[in-house]
Amino acid sequence: xxxxxxxxxxxxxxxxxxxxxxxxxxxxxxxxxxxxxxxxxxxxxxxxxxxxxxxxxxxxxxxxxxxxxxxxxxxxxxxxxxxxx
Length: 85
Fold this sequence. Notes:
There is one protein chain. The two termini are 32 Å apart. By secondary structure, the protein is mainly α. It has three helices and no strands. 89% of the residues lie in helices and 0% in strands. It has one domain: F1FO ATP Synthase.
């Protein structure tokens, strides 16, 4: 049996759930950060191309970032529920 198999047999079910919840929260946070970074980068590029539309671009960027943050918060809350319930 592989080393990973021995480790998984030694770890209890609750520990695996905690490990999965931590991994899920980390993935959600990293994905949200990458998404918001990409939105910000694209918005800055668009504002540089069309400075007269800066207000519209900025407001759309804020709405999109808020939607991404909402999904990330939901994913982290689900991970915490798995962790503590």
